[in-house]
Specification:
Length: 117
């Protein structure tokens, strides 16, 4: 198997907890919906089982869909830049939330691997 079941369960639980409960739209349910939609669309047009989609690519697509809004706290990039939010400074006002979500997802992936990788 590509994943150990307990590592996958830990990752998914941690990822779900990373979504801000007070955000009415960017929730873990939205992430699951996007993940399902990506799978449905790529499967419907025949990409999912094509030779261009390796197992690693399929996993990357699903992980990206599941984590694409992790940690979203209901503000947009413009607001963060104008208010000089710490994240805007960190990411030089460029794709602030996109960089934040990606960084957050990678942190969760790193922490859920455990000591044995």
């Amino acid at each position: 198997p590509m994943f150990k079941a307990d590592a996958l369960a830990t990752f998914l639980k941690t990822l779900e907890e990373g979504y801000v409960k007070e955000n009415p739209y960017h929730t873990h349910v939205h992430a699951a919906d996007v993940c399902n939609s990506i799978f449905f669309m790529t499967n419907a047009v025949g990409f999912w089982h094509s030779s261009h989609f390796t197992d690693n690519r399929r996993i990357a697509i699903l992980l990206a869909a599941l984590g694409h809004d992790v940690g979203h706290f209901a503000r947009n990039n413009h607001f963060l830049a104008v208010t000089k939010h710490a994240l805007a400074t960190t990411y030089n006002d460029r794709s602030v939330l996109e960089n934040f979500h990606t960084s957050s997802l990678f942190r969760i992936l790193d922490s859920s691997r455990g000591p044995d990788g």
